[in-house]
């Protein structure tokens, strides 16, 4: 199974397990070692404290001192709805950029097909281009 399909399936499996009915959403990420990390958005009482579905996997990658190579965020409206791929929000794009412009992220695409693009392709005019690569990424 290719990485893209593996991550999509991992996210769907987590949604079906964690949210058997109603709304559900999950993220899945692949590390440079080939490990798949999954996460969900925490349920909170105050909407101002909400976090994206990807945050748990991002934090896990930092904890493990590994790099993220691919990321996907999947949601569904209820248990009878089809799954949707969500392009990472701007904040999660910034969080994923820690691992460089080559991180592959799944994006919302026509006919809800799974499509990945690099952060470089998603953000061709990103603010970091104003600085030398080595200053931003330490390379």
UniProtKB/TrEMBL annotation:
Q: Name one GO molecular function term.
A: cytidine deaminase activity
| Superkingdom as given in the UniProt entry | Bacteria
Keyword Hydrolase present in the record's keywords: the answer is yes
Please give the Gene3D superfamilies that the UniProt record associates with this protein. Answer: Cytidine Deaminase, domain 2 (3.40.140.10)
Which Enzyme Commission number(s) are listed? 3.5.4.5
| Keyword set, alphabetical order | Hydrolase
**Catalytic EC class:** hydrolase
Residue ranges spanning the membrane: these are: none
Q: Which NCBIfam families match?
A: PRK08298.1
Descriptive protein name: Cytidine deaminase
Q: Which organism is it from?
A: Terribacillus saccharophilus
